[in-house]
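Standup notes
- HV: blocked on the assembly model, inputs below
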Amino acid sequence: MTDGAVRQAGLFAAWRSMLVRDLTLAMRRRADVLTSLFFFVIVVSLFPLGVSPEMAVLRGIAPGVIWVAALLATMLSLGRMFADDHHDGSLEQMLLLPHPLSLLLLGKVLAHWLVSGLPLVLLSPLLGMQLGLDGDAIGLLMVTLLLGTPVLSLIGATGAALTLGVRGGGVLVSLLVLPLYIPVLIFGTGAVDAGLSGMSYEGHLSLLGAFLVLALVTTPLATAAALRISVE
Amino acid sequence: MLEIRDLECVRGDHRLFRGLNFSLQGGELLYLRGSNGSGKTSLLRTVCGLLEPAAGEVLWKGENVRSQRDEFNAELTYLGHLNGVKGELTAFENLRLGCALSGLAVGEDELYDALERIGLGGREDLPTQVLSQGQKRRVALARLLLSRARLWVLDEPFTALDVAAVDQLAKLIEAHLQKGGMAMFTTHQAVDIRAGAVHEVNLDAQQA
Protein backbone atom coordinates (compact mmCIF):
# COMPACT_ATOMS: atom_id res chain seq x y z
CA MET A 1 0.00 0.00 0.00
CA THR A 2 1.15 3.51 -0.70
CA ASP A 3 1.54 6.03 2.06
CA GLY A 4 -1.63 7.81 0.98
CA ALA A 5 -3.65 4.58 0.98
CA VAL A 6 -2.39 3.68 4.46
CA ARG A 7 -3.40 7.08 5.73
CA GLN A 8 -6.83 6.79 4.14
CA ALA A 9 -7.38 3.39 5.73
CA GLY A 10 -6.33 4.90 9.06
CA LEU A 11 -8.70 7.80 8.59
CA PHE A 12 -11.60 5.49 7.84
CA ALA A 13 -10.82 3.34 10.88
CA ALA A 14 -10.65 6.45 13.03
CA TRP A 15 -13.91 7.77 11.59
CA ARG A 16 -15.65 4.49 12.32
CA SER A 17 -14.20 4.39 15.84
CA MET A 18 -15.54 7.88 16.51
CA LEU A 19 -19.00 6.77 15.39
CA VAL A 20 -18.87 3.54 17.40
CA ARG A 21 -17.53 5.39 20.45
CA ASP A 22 -20.33 7.95 20.50
CA LEU A 23 -23.02 5.35 19.83
CA THR A 24 -21.68 3.17 22.64
CA LEU A 25 -21.61 6.14 25.00
CA ALA A 26 -25.20 7.01 24.04
CA MET A 27 -26.28 3.43 24.72
CA ARG A 28 -24.67 3.57 28.17
CA ARG A 29 -26.52 6.81 28.94
CA ARG A 30 -29.88 5.86 27.55
CA ALA A 31 -31.74 8.17 29.94
CA ASP A 32 -30.29 11.24 28.23
CA VAL A 33 -31.44 10.04 24.83
CA LEU A 34 -34.92 9.12 26.00
CA THR A 35 -35.42 12.48 27.70
CA SER A 36 -35.31 14.47 24.48
CA LEU A 37 -37.45 11.86 22.75
CA PHE A 38 -40.15 12.06 25.42
CA PHE A 39 -39.88 15.83 25.30
CA PHE A 40 -40.68 15.68 21.58
CA VAL A 41 -43.73 13.47 22.14
CA ILE A 42 -45.04 15.51 25.06
CA VAL A 43 -44.66 18.91 23.39
CA VAL A 44 -46.63 17.70 20.37
CA SER A 45 -49.27 16.06 22.57
CA LEU A 46 -49.87 19.33 24.45
CA PHE A 47 -51.31 21.02 21.36
CA PRO A 48 -54.57 19.05 21.09
CA LEU A 49 -55.11 19.82 24.78
CA GLY A 50 -54.11 23.46 24.61
CA VAL A 51 -55.30 24.66 21.21
CA SER A 52 -58.31 22.62 20.19
CA PRO A 53 -59.17 18.96 19.78
CA GLU A 54 -60.83 19.91 16.46
CA MET A 55 -59.23 17.73 13.75
CA ALA A 56 -59.47 20.44 11.08
CA VAL A 57 -57.58 22.90 13.27
CA LEU A 58 -54.98 20.34 14.29
CA ARG A 59 -54.39 19.20 10.74
CA GLY A 60 -53.61 22.78 9.75
CA ILE A 61 -51.01 23.32 12.46
CA ALA A 62 -49.63 19.75 12.53
CA PRO A 63 -46.56 20.23 10.29
CA GLY A 64 -45.50 23.36 12.15
CA VAL A 65 -46.06 21.84 15.58
CA ILE A 66 -44.12 18.69 14.81
CA TRP A 67 -41.29 20.61 13.20
CA VAL A 68 -40.97 23.12 16.04
CA ALA A 69 -41.03 20.29 18.57
CA ALA A 70 -38.27 18.57 16.58
CA LEU A 71 -36.16 21.74 16.67
CA LEU A 72 -36.59 22.07 20.42
CA ALA A 73 -35.90 18.38 21.07
CA THR A 74 -32.70 18.66 19.04
CA MET A 75 -31.70 21.72 21.04
CA LEU A 76 -32.05 19.73 24.25
CA SER A 77 -29.54 17.15 23.11
CA LEU A 78 -26.92 19.62 21.86
CA GLY A 79 -25.46 20.43 25.27
CA ARG A 80 -24.09 16.92 25.67
CA MET A 81 -22.42 16.79 22.30
CA PHE A 82 -18.99 18.06 23.36
CA ALA A 83 -19.43 18.98 27.03
CA ASP A 84 -18.39 15.60 28.46
CA ASP A 85 -15.45 15.29 26.10
CA HIS A 86 -14.38 18.78 27.09
CA HIS A 87 -14.72 17.94 30.74
CA ASP A 88 -12.76 14.69 30.83
CA GLY A 89 -9.98 15.66 28.44
CA SER A 90 -11.08 13.50 25.51
CA LEU A 91 -11.52 16.63 23.44
CA GLU A 92 -7.83 17.54 23.77
CA GLN A 93 -6.90 14.07 22.62
CA MET A 94 -9.35 14.40 19.74
CA LEU A 95 -7.67 17.61 18.61
CA LEU A 96 -4.30 15.87 18.64
CA LEU A 97 -5.33 13.01 16.37
CA PRO A 98 -3.39 12.65 13.16
CA HIS A 99 -6.52 13.08 11.03
CA PRO A 100 -8.45 16.07 9.73
CA LEU A 101 -10.68 17.03 12.63
CA SER A 102 -13.58 18.15 10.47
CA LEU A 103 -13.91 14.69 8.91
CA LEU A 104 -13.86 12.98 12.31
CA LEU A 105 -16.52 15.41 13.47
CA LEU A 106 -18.78 14.16 10.69
CA GLY A 107 -18.66 10.78 12.44
CA LYS A 108 -19.57 12.41 15.71
CA VAL A 109 -22.44 14.35 14.16
CA LEU A 110 -23.70 11.21 12.43
CA ALA A 111 -23.75 9.48 15.82
CA HIS A 112 -25.68 12.42 17.26
CA TRP A 113 -28.20 12.27 14.43
CA LEU A 114 -28.65 8.50 14.71
CA VAL A 115 -29.36 8.85 18.41
CA SER A 116 -31.41 12.04 18.57
CA GLY A 117 -32.50 12.88 15.01
CA LEU A 118 -33.50 9.58 13.46
CA PRO A 119 -35.78 8.60 16.38
CA LEU A 120 -37.71 11.84 15.78
CA VAL A 121 -38.23 10.86 12.15
CA LEU A 122 -39.38 7.39 13.18
CA LEU A 123 -41.79 8.73 15.81
CA SER A 124 -43.27 11.43 13.59
CA PRO A 125 -45.91 9.20 11.86
CA LEU A 126 -47.43 8.43 15.23
CA LEU A 127 -47.61 12.11 16.15
CA GLY A 128 -48.84 12.97 12.66
CA MET A 129 -51.74 10.54 13.12
CA GLN A 130 -52.46 12.05 16.50
CA LEU A 131 -52.83 15.44 14.82
CA GLY A 132 -55.02 14.05 12.05
CA LEU A 133 -52.61 14.02 9.11
CA ASP A 134 -53.40 11.54 6.33
CA GLY A 135 -51.00 8.94 4.94
CA ASP A 136 -49.57 11.07 2.13
CA ALA A 137 -48.93 14.05 4.38
CA ILE A 138 -47.27 11.79 6.96
CA GLY A 139 -45.00 10.33 4.30
CA LEU A 140 -44.07 13.81 3.18
CA LEU A 141 -43.49 14.93 6.77
CA MET A 142 -41.10 12.02 7.27
CA VAL A 143 -39.16 12.90 4.13
CA THR A 144 -38.79 16.53 5.22
CA LEU A 145 -37.64 15.44 8.68
CA LEU A 146 -35.24 12.94 7.14
CA LEU A 147 -33.66 15.71 5.08
CA GLY A 148 -33.94 18.37 7.76
CA THR A 149 -32.87 16.74 11.04
CA PRO A 150 -29.29 16.05 9.85
CA VAL A 151 -29.01 19.78 9.12
CA LEU A 152 -30.17 20.47 12.68
CA SER A 153 -27.44 18.18 14.05
CA LEU A 154 -24.78 19.72 11.81
CA ILE A 155 -25.61 23.34 12.65
CA GLY A 156 -26.19 22.39 16.28
CA ALA A 157 -22.69 20.93 16.48
CA THR A 158 -21.22 24.27 15.48
CA GLY A 159 -23.36 26.05 18.07
CA ALA A 160 -22.44 23.55 20.77
CA ALA A 161 -18.74 23.93 19.94
CA LEU A 162 -18.94 27.73 20.03
CA THR A 163 -20.59 27.78 23.46
CA LEU A 164 -18.37 25.10 24.96
CA GLY A 165 -17.08 26.00 28.39
CA VAL A 166 -19.24 29.14 28.53
CA ARG A 167 -21.40 29.53 31.62
CA GLY A 168 -25.07 29.28 30.73
CA GLY A 169 -24.05 27.73 27.43
CA GLY A 170 -27.36 25.88 27.20
CA VAL A 171 -29.39 29.07 26.80
CA LEU A 172 -26.75 30.69 24.64
CA VAL A 173 -26.71 27.79 22.23
CA SER A 174 -30.47 28.22 21.69
CA LEU A 175 -30.07 31.90 20.89
CA LEU A 176 -27.24 31.09 18.54
CA VAL A 177 -28.68 28.10 16.76
CA LEU A 178 -32.46 28.62 16.61
CA PRO A 179 -32.25 31.55 14.15
CA LEU A 180 -30.11 29.35 11.90
CA TYR A 181 -32.78 26.64 12.06
CA ILE A 182 -35.40 28.98 10.61
CA PRO A 183 -34.79 28.21 6.91
CA VAL A 184 -35.04 24.48 7.61
CA LEU A 185 -38.26 25.06 9.55
CA ILE A 186 -39.79 27.19 6.78
CA PHE A 187 -39.10 24.77 3.98
CA GLY A 188 -39.80 21.67 6.09
CA THR A 189 -43.27 22.82 7.08
CA GLY A 190 -43.75 24.51 3.70
CA ALA A 191 -43.37 21.21 1.88
CA VAL A 192 -45.99 19.47 4.02
CA ASP A 193 -48.37 22.44 3.79
CA ALA A 194 -47.98 22.47 0.02
CA GLY A 195 -48.65 18.73 -0.07
CA LEU A 196 -51.78 19.16 2.09
CA SER A 197 -53.20 21.79 -0.23
CA GLY A 198 -52.38 19.73 -3.30
CA MET A 199 -49.60 21.96 -4.62
CA SER A 200 -46.16 20.99 -5.80
CA TYR A 201 -43.65 20.45 -3.00
CA GLU A 202 -40.57 19.35 -4.98
CA GLY A 203 -39.05 22.81 -4.76
CA HIS A 204 -39.15 22.75 -0.96
CA LEU A 205 -37.57 19.31 -0.83
CA SER A 206 -34.82 20.36 -3.25
CA LEU A 207 -34.04 23.34 -1.07
CA LEU A 208 -33.93 21.14 2.05
CA GLY A 209 -31.54 18.86 0.18
CA ALA A 210 -29.43 21.86 -0.77
CA PHE A 211 -29.32 22.98 2.88
CA LEU A 212 -28.15 19.52 3.84
CA VAL A 213 -25.32 19.53 1.29
CA LEU A 214 -24.31 23.05 2.27
CA ALA A 215 -24.30 22.18 5.97
CA LEU A 216 -22.34 18.96 5.31
CA VAL A 217 -19.62 20.90 3.55
CA THR A 218 -19.35 24.00 5.72
CA THR A 219 -20.36 23.26 9.33
CA PRO A 220 -17.67 20.63 10.15
CA LEU A 221 -14.98 23.18 9.31
CA ALA A 222 -16.62 25.80 11.51
CA THR A 223 -17.12 23.27 14.31
CA ALA A 224 -13.47 22.18 14.14
CA ALA A 225 -12.30 25.79 14.32
CA ALA A 226 -14.61 26.49 17.26
CA LEU A 227 -13.35 23.42 19.13
CA ARG A 228 -9.73 24.47 18.66
CA ILE A 229 -10.57 27.85 20.16
CA SER A 230 -12.47 26.29 23.05
CA VAL A 231 -9.43 24.44 24.44
CA GLU A 232 -7.16 27.49 24.34
CA MET B 1 13.83 17.29 15.60
CA LEU B 2 11.82 19.48 17.92
CA GLU B 3 12.87 23.07 18.12
CA ILE B 4 11.36 25.90 20.11
CA ARG B 5 12.26 29.29 18.77
CA ASP B 6 11.75 32.55 20.62
CA LEU B 7 8.52 31.35 22.16
CA GLU B 8 6.30 33.72 24.08
CA CYS B 9 3.19 32.73 25.94
CA VAL B 10 0.51 35.07 27.27
CA ARG B 11 -2.52 34.00 29.29
CA GLY B 12 -5.09 36.71 29.77
CA ASP B 13 -3.11 39.90 30.43
CA HIS B 14 -0.26 38.04 32.03
CA ARG B 15 2.88 37.16 30.13
CA LEU B 16 4.14 33.79 31.36
CA PHE B 17 7.45 33.67 29.54
CA ARG B 18 9.12 35.02 26.43
CA GLY B 19 12.18 34.43 24.35
CA LEU B 20 12.22 30.73 25.17
CA ASN B 21 14.56 28.64 23.04
CA PHE B 22 15.49 24.99 23.21
CA SER B 23 15.71 21.96 20.99
CA LEU B 24 15.28 18.26 21.52
CA GLN B 25 16.88 15.42 19.54
CA GLY B 26 16.18 11.69 19.50
CA GLY B 27 17.01 10.04 22.84
CA GLU B 28 16.87 13.28 24.75
CA LEU B 29 14.72 14.23 27.70
CA LEU B 30 13.48 17.66 28.63
CA TYR B 31 12.69 18.27 32.23
CA LEU B 32 10.53 21.31 32.75
CA ARG B 33 10.77 23.05 36.10
CA GLY B 34 8.90 25.95 37.57
CA SER B 35 6.66 26.97 40.41
CA ASN B 36 2.88 26.81 40.19
CA GLY B 37 1.59 29.20 37.57
CA SER B 38 4.94 29.64 35.87
CA GLY B 39 3.53 28.33 32.59
CA LYS B 40 4.64 24.70 32.47
CA THR B 41 1.28 23.41 31.29
CA SER B 42 0.90 26.32 28.86
CA LEU B 43 4.31 25.55 27.38
CA LEU B 44 3.48 21.87 26.93
CA ARG B 45 0.11 22.71 25.38
CA THR B 46 1.78 25.21 23.06
CA VAL B 47 4.27 22.58 21.93
CA CYS B 48 1.38 20.22 21.18
CA GLY B 49 -0.41 22.91 19.21
CA LEU B 50 -3.37 23.20 21.57
CA LEU B 51 -2.40 26.76 22.41
CA GLU B 52 -1.32 29.35 19.94
CA PRO B 53 1.93 31.05 20.94
CA ALA B 54 1.83 34.84 21.32
CA ALA B 55 5.10 34.95 19.44
CA GLY B 56 7.75 32.55 18.20
CA GLU B 57 7.27 29.11 16.73
CA VAL B 58 7.43 25.40 17.40
CA LEU B 59 9.32 23.53 14.70
CA TRP B 60 9.22 19.81 13.99
CA LYS B 61 11.85 18.57 11.54
CA GLY B 62 12.49 22.19 10.64
CA GLU B 63 8.91 23.09 9.81
CA ASN B 64 6.29 24.88 11.85
CA VAL B 65 3.96 22.33 13.44
CA ARG B 66 0.93 24.42 12.50
CA SER B 67 1.59 23.84 8.82
CA GLN B 68 1.86 20.05 9.24
CA ARG B 69 -0.61 19.31 12.00
CA ASP B 70 -1.58 15.78 10.92
CA GLU B 71 2.03 14.69 10.37
CA PHE B 72 3.13 16.16 13.70
CA ASN B 73 0.17 14.67 15.59
CA ALA B 74 1.05 11.23 14.21
CA GLU B 75 4.40 11.48 16.02
CA LEU B 76 3.03 12.99 19.21
CA THR B 77 1.51 11.52 22.35
CA TYR B 78 0.20 14.00 24.88
CA LEU B 79 -0.87 13.22 28.39
CA GLY B 80 -2.42 16.18 30.14
CA HIS B 81 -3.88 16.86 33.55
CA LEU B 82 -7.10 15.30 32.34
CA ASN B 83 -6.89 11.64 31.50
CA GLY B 84 -9.12 11.67 28.45
CA VAL B 85 -10.69 8.47 29.72
CA LYS B 86 -14.41 7.89 29.32
CA GLY B 87 -16.07 6.83 32.57
CA GLU B 88 -18.86 4.92 30.83
CA LEU B 89 -16.45 2.80 28.80
CA THR B 90 -14.33 0.00 30.18
CA ALA B 91 -10.56 0.27 30.37
CA PHE B 92 -10.32 -2.08 27.41
CA GLU B 93 -12.78 -0.07 25.30
CA ASN B 94 -11.03 3.16 26.17
CA LEU B 95 -7.70 1.79 25.06
CA ARG B 96 -9.05 0.10 21.93
CA LEU B 97 -10.91 3.19 20.73
CA GLY B 98 -7.97 5.43 21.64
CA CYS B 99 -5.64 3.32 19.51
CA ALA B 100 -8.08 3.08 16.61
CA LEU B 101 -8.63 6.83 16.64
CA SER B 102 -4.94 7.58 16.50
CA GLY B 103 -4.54 5.15 13.63
CA LEU B 104 -2.73 2.37 15.48
CA ALA B 105 -3.63 -1.10 14.27
CA VAL B 106 -3.40 -3.08 17.51
CA GLY B 107 -4.72 -6.58 18.15
CA GLU B 108 -6.90 -7.50 21.13
CA ASP B 109 -4.10 -9.55 22.70
CA GLU B 110 -1.78 -6.58 22.62
CA LEU B 111 -4.44 -4.40 24.26
CA TYR B 112 -5.04 -6.90 27.08
CA ASP B 113 -1.31 -7.33 27.46
CA ALA B 114 -0.78 -3.57 27.78
CA LEU B 115 -3.48 -3.31 30.45
CA GLU B 116 -1.97 -6.26 32.30
CA ARG B 117 1.48 -4.68 32.23
CA ILE B 118 0.22 -1.33 33.49
CA GLY B 119 -1.33 -3.12 36.46
CA LEU B 120 -4.96 -3.25 35.44
CA GLY B 121 -5.14 -7.01 35.01
CA GLY B 122 -8.61 -8.22 36.04
CA ARG B 123 -10.02 -4.68 35.80
CA GLU B 124 -10.13 -4.52 32.00
CA ASP B 125 -13.88 -4.91 31.71
CA LEU B 126 -15.00 -2.56 34.46
CA PRO B 127 -16.37 0.84 33.53
CA THR B 128 -13.52 3.21 34.35
CA GLN B 129 -15.81 5.41 36.46
CA VAL B 130 -15.67 2.80 39.23
CA LEU B 131 -11.86 2.76 39.20
CA SER B 132 -9.71 4.81 41.56
CA GLN B 133 -7.94 8.01 40.50
CA GLY B 134 -4.62 6.19 40.15
CA GLN B 135 -6.19 3.39 38.14
CA LYS B 136 -7.81 5.89 35.77
CA ARG B 137 -4.38 7.44 35.32
CA ARG B 138 -3.05 3.99 34.48
CA VAL B 139 -5.68 3.58 31.78
CA ALA B 140 -4.38 6.79 30.22
CA LEU B 141 -0.79 5.60 30.64
CA ALA B 142 -1.55 2.31 28.90
CA ARG B 143 -1.66 4.33 25.69
CA LEU B 144 2.05 5.07 26.14
CA LEU B 145 2.81 1.35 26.11
CA LEU B 146 1.29 1.01 22.66
CA SER B 147 2.25 4.39 21.31
CA ARG B 148 4.59 4.55 18.36
CA ALA B 149 4.92 8.31 18.62
CA ARG B 150 8.44 9.73 18.75
CA LEU B 151 7.61 12.66 20.99
CA TRP B 152 5.97 12.20 24.36
CA VAL B 153 4.64 15.30 26.06
CA LEU B 154 3.66 14.47 29.62
CA ASP B 155 2.12 16.96 32.00
CA GLU B 156 2.68 15.80 35.58
CA PRO B 157 2.47 12.14 34.58
CA PHE B 158 3.31 10.91 38.07
CA THR B 159 0.38 12.44 39.97
CA ALA B 160 -2.00 9.97 41.60
CA LEU B 161 0.35 7.05 40.90
CA ASP B 162 1.72 4.78 43.62
CA VAL B 163 5.44 4.16 44.09
CA ALA B 164 5.52 1.05 41.93
CA ALA B 165 3.70 2.77 39.09
CA VAL B 166 5.97 5.81 39.28
CA ASP B 167 8.92 3.46 38.95
CA GLN B 168 7.31 1.65 36.05
CA LEU B 169 6.54 4.88 34.21
CA ALA B 170 10.11 6.11 34.71
CA LYS B 171 11.35 2.83 33.16
CA LEU B 172 8.89 3.23 30.33
CA ILE B 173 10.19 6.72 29.54
CA GLU B 174 13.77 5.38 29.71
CA ALA B 175 12.94 2.61 27.24
CA HIS B 176 11.27 5.13 24.94
CA LEU B 177 14.37 7.34 24.99
CA GLN B 178 16.64 4.38 24.33
CA LYS B 179 14.66 3.62 21.19
CA GLY B 180 15.46 7.12 19.97
CA GLY B 181 12.29 8.78 21.19
CA MET B 182 11.98 12.16 22.81
CA ALA B 183 10.13 13.13 25.93
CA MET B 184 9.35 16.31 27.78
CA PHE B 185 7.60 16.38 31.10
CA THR B 186 6.90 18.31 34.25
CA THR B 187 6.78 16.93 37.74
CA HIS B 188 7.10 18.09 41.30
CA GLN B 189 8.38 14.70 42.37
CA ALA B 190 12.00 13.62 42.32
CA VAL B 191 12.22 10.96 39.64
CA ASP B 192 15.35 9.38 38.32
CA ILE B 193 15.36 8.83 34.58
CA ARG B 194 18.46 7.98 32.62
CA ALA B 195 18.68 9.53 29.17
CA GLY B 196 21.21 10.32 26.48
CA ALA B 197 20.97 13.94 27.42
CA VAL B 198 18.77 15.64 29.95
CA HIS B 199 17.88 19.23 29.26
CA GLU B 200 16.38 21.32 31.94
CA VAL B 201 14.28 24.40 31.43
CA ASN B 202 13.40 26.43 34.45
CA LEU B 203 10.48 28.70 33.71
CA ASP B 204 10.98 30.68 36.93
CA ALA B 205 14.19 32.03 35.38
CA GLN B 206 12.30 33.02 32.22
CA GLN B 207 9.85 35.34 33.91
CA ALA B 208 9.74 38.56 32.01
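- HV (later): unblocked. Residues 85-147 of chain B form one domain. The mean pLDDT of chain B is 89.
- Next: hand off to the docking folks.
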